[in-house]
Amino acid sequence: MVRGRICSLSVRDVRFPTSLGGHGSDAMHTDPDYSAAYVVLETDAEDGLKGYGITFTLGKGTEVVVCAVNALAHHVLNKDLGDIVGDFRGFYRQLTSDGQLRWIGPEKGVVHLATAAILNAVWDLWAKQEGKDPRTLLSCIDFRYITDVLTEEEAYEILQKGQVGKKEREGQMLMHGYPAYTTSCAWLGYSDDTLKQLCTEALKAGWTRPAVGSSLLSLSCVNMDPWTSEGLPLDKWFKVKVGADLQDDVRRCRLIRNMIGPEKTLMMDANQRWDVPEAVKWMSQLAEFKPLWIEEPTSPDDILGHAAISKALAPLGIGVATGEQCHNRVIFKQLLQAKALQFLQIDSCRLGSVNENLSVLLMAKKFEIPVCPHAGGVGLCELVQHLIIFDFISVSASLQNRMCEYVDHLHEHFRYPVIIKKASYMPPKDAGYSTEMKEESVKKHQYPDGEVWKKLLAAQEN
Amino acid sequence: MVRGRICSLSVRDVRFPTSLGGHGSDAMHTDPDYSAAYVVLETDAEDGLKGYGITFTLGKGTEVVVCAVNALAHHVLNKDLGDIVGDFRGFYRQLTSDGQLRWIGPEKGVVHLATAAILNAVWDLWAKQEGKDPRTLLSCIDFRYITDVLTEEEAYEILQKGQVGKKEREGQMLMHGYPAYTTSCAWLGYSDDTLKQLCTEALKAGWTRPAVGSSLLSLSCVNMDPWTSEGLPLDKWFKVKVGADLQDDVRRCRLIRNMIGPEKTLMMDANQRWDVPEAVKWMSQLAEFKPLWIEEPTSPDDILGHAAISKALAPLGIGVATGEQCHNRVIFKQLLQAKALQFLQIDSCRLGSVNENLSVLLMAKKFEIPVCPHAGGVGLCELVQHLIIFDFISVSASLQNRMCEYVDHLHEHFRYPVIIKKASYMPPKDAGYSTEMKEESVKKHQYPDGEVWKKLLAAQEN
């Protein structure tokens, strides 16, 4: 039973000054401050539950997303949560098809990020109240513009098939978790020495950290029995940022490949630096380092370009991965139709929340393309773990060629941070979408008035 | 000689309550208030010239674009205009590739609209100071992500070929203008009676209005000799909005076709209402009314979808037109590559100003696809006339299958409004990009404090 009327929406601009240490830097984003537009929904229900939602940003521009959240707020305020989730498809479309606001999207850029932040909060709140069955999940998806590839009935069949062996896969997740790989050790802003040191550490440590309680977003009604910590065999994946300078790339790739040996998986990430012919040429020269994929070789909007690159690199054994800046389900639909990618990277905060991510997971299943989510930025790991574990348990039923990105920073600001064990995401155990930040962290990092920014901005002025 | 350092940027939220009369309504945008984020640049030069720039919006959300303009302002302020236009490609890329802000685009949605508003103001200012030759124009284009289809050298060749017969085409424009068609008479929100009345008026009147002085944006260095008003043979085009209800569409299309007769050109516009199979089915049932094109049959992001629709409708003699919500040159590149459209509709305020529009005009020329701009909203006609007349004089050199949209409202708020004579855009004569609004209009329509909105908002509260 869903309870409460949304009586308050607040949104804050929260920024972490990560650019100071070069964290997260790549060929196109040289000085990101990992940030979020942070939404809190309150209801008038007596349970006192709140819904927390974020969308990820890189610092400047967060205030624009905050402004867009406020522009969308009237669609949410004073609505019954029951009415919202009772026709979640309709509500999704109301947000994305507002007769005036859709002009400044539609379903892309700032307004879509704002939509994600709000809907993520709705899912957090809803997930704390109750579980969902396949029909309920489907009723959340807006199939507009994708029925030529996936109808609601086809989606239902996929979810029905996903019931087979579900119990075993739940057990497997609870026991071993979902395989992760790390990007932390090869940001473009790091020196060779830092790179070497971080790579050594990652190889040695396996990111084991003390487990704390957590739980699957009630998406997939996982069995909540405790799990043992016997892990999967350790098979680590490493990712290196490329694309700024070919000679640098050759040197760095050689360094990493030498350290990790020939068997471990290496991926490369160009962050959209190249034109289509350039991507093919550049990657041909990095082929000797045996990358599994090249990520974001060109513009995220270029479906036909990715298809051409995929075709050219296939003989070299290099796949194409993209998605973190693909702005909606229509782009993913076409990437699948055009055979433009071999690895699909959803971003939990760019697409329109769980609603739209579900549609992409289902289309990927239909085309049998593995989903390997993007999860670098603040909060992305917390959210995406729900999606990817759901994907394994209820949709793809496979771990082959699948892994979820993981970056080991800023988790300390979340109330229910991800748990990584032996290079795997362990299923979250607390109800909700793991989106709540610690109030203390929010207060400190609020822009421009939080303590951290007050100091930094004052220092900049001097 | 380019003069001045940008010493001030102001941006205002200007809205016209057009929804009160159902103007501009269509299947997806049922209550638009035609609006603009309105940018004014000032320099420290003694000439006192200002640059005016707008981007078009539909009411709500204009404040989000205003916020984005402010977020981009630091890239413009305190820059020498000479430095900006001296490396305009670099400046364009600086705006569109800001390491933090590009995350909330990139090159799409709110930030790209804001980019357009700012750059439109730069062009207005620059155009008032001096003319441009082909090499200068090319130096404004960011070829990133389109070199697989158009290189700078190819673009140069196209412009060089465009020199042949240029003088004659200038004369032709000055004499007859650029053919226009009107959408005003068939907005979805109008009743059958209103529709009939407006259609009759348009047929009778030919929109003749007293000519006032105007001039080509110095893009193409047009001969400024006075022209006679001997017109082209009158061949009017009419456009009807479809997509909400098939029976309504059949009735309205029959009504209009009967009024205009079998020879006049009729276009249809679905404003993205359909999925791909639905578009094909629906249009098959409207084929008897002989539309030249179906505009925006589905999502503006769906390149492969438009290609499928184009293929299916070709045997019925119906072309596909799209572009007003296509968010950048990468999308247009693919629409051309995939043979997904037969008519290309740029929007002067959605793409990144003249810089990006130029790249699209040049690609369209390469594929020999006619450009028929979108120009409904406030200010769009004022801006796009420069682009389309430039296209004819210097790029396409053809009027075949070409026409520019025209909607007859809100021009009275501009200081240099478009001049329509015998259903044609007459070349603008004043220097600049025709972007300046009357200060009185801006003040009255500023949201939420202008006189017009104060009254309306107070009335809503009661």
Automatic annotation (TrEMBL), chains A, B:
Gene3D superfamilies: Enolase-like C-terminal domain (3.20.20.120), Enolase-like, N-terminal domain (3.30.390.10). SUPFAM superfamilies: Enolase C-terminal domain-like (SSF51604), Enolase N-terminal domain-like (SSF54826). Residues 192-316 form the Mandelate racemase/muconate lactonizing enzyme C-terminal domain. Its EC number is 4.2.1.68. InterPro entries: Enolase-like_C_sf (IPR036849), Enolase-like_N (IPR029017), Enolase_C-like (IPR029065), L-fuconate_dehydratase (IPR034610), Mandel_Rmase/mucon_lact_enz_CS (IPR018110), Mandelate_racemase_C (IPR013342), Mandelate_racemase_N_dom (IPR013341), RHMD-like (IPR046945). Its cofactor is Mg(2+). This is L-fuconate dehydratase. The gene is ENOSF1.
